[in-house]
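quick one
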Amino acid sequence: MSSAKELNYPHILIQYQNGFLVSKVMFTACELGVFDLLQESKEKLSSKAIAECLRSGLPGMERLLDACVGLKLLEVDVSKEGAFYCNTEISEQFLTKSSPKSQYHTCMYYSKTIYPCWQYLTEAVREGKNQYERAFGISSKAVFEALYRSEEEMLKFMYGLNAIWSLCGRDVIAAFDLSPFTMICDLGGGAGALAQECVSLYPDCTVTIFDLPKVIQTAKKHFVSLEKHQINFYEGDFFKDPLPEAELYILARILHDWSDENCVQLLTKVQKSCKTGGGVLLIETLLNEDKRGPLESQLYSLNMLVHTEGKERSPAEYSKLLTASGFKEIEIKKSGKLYDAILGRK
Ligand code: SAM
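structure w/ S-adenosylmethionine:
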């Protein structure tokens, strides 16, 4: 017979089972525009008013709003006239579209792209490869062709990835004193949030954002003001085309997309293009050396499995890749936030 202790269903299991329900409540409230409406309205709104404005049925909206209250994403005042809702500080700052620290686009990317892929985590673990084919019916051989399968998907990806740097971009760019480097190239710089952080912290530098041609065109159109004269653009494929000369190459969330072989191939090319005395700055989430944490990095590493050809790595693993590519004097700075910085010298 089981003991009473064993029969007590552990609370932690209930939390884990419900983890994705919690995510979906937040994503759905974002997608329907609940937080934006409450921000714009400036006064508390009833569930009926919210449902009407957002063209949603009332019973479902009432449940969604109350679940958001349970998650501390909304506050409610209940009086004789009914229940009236407003944003909490968290949703106002991070989930409304217009906030400078908005994570709205990240939530949308998680909801529409990451979530469907994670339905095939079992297959990803069994097969050791990404699940684009099962989730979206597209070949997964060329990861970024699959990721950028339409302009809409590419924009979603770029907005989604850019958002995190409004929270911790300054920390990673300030982790080392980069002021000696005046010619910087942000390889795979995407929508340019880190390049903008760089020129604002180091006014004497110029940053060239290098990325695939359609990403560069989208960055110019939607993300980076062309009046920022310290920022240049360079279209190319970093595996096939020559790299622009620079004193420092930033690779933020690049190596985690690729196998060790591809990483060494790319870093060797970077090392050859780098000016003497220059270096490379890797910005990645770091696993502990024993791989037993942090949990976020472990989860992100599984995310890389379902989505890419890469994985998250420990500081020693990144040092090994850098050393194999000819970099020396490798230093690691943990930012205490989601992403950390590793500097290697030529
Ligand atoms: N560095 C940005 C950041 O941290 O927000 C974006 C990181 S994203 C995970 C990877 C970036 O690498 C994308 O912008 C993608 O377009 C770019 N990329 C992928 N393959 C590339 C290639 N072969 N040549 C140039 N850029 C590439």
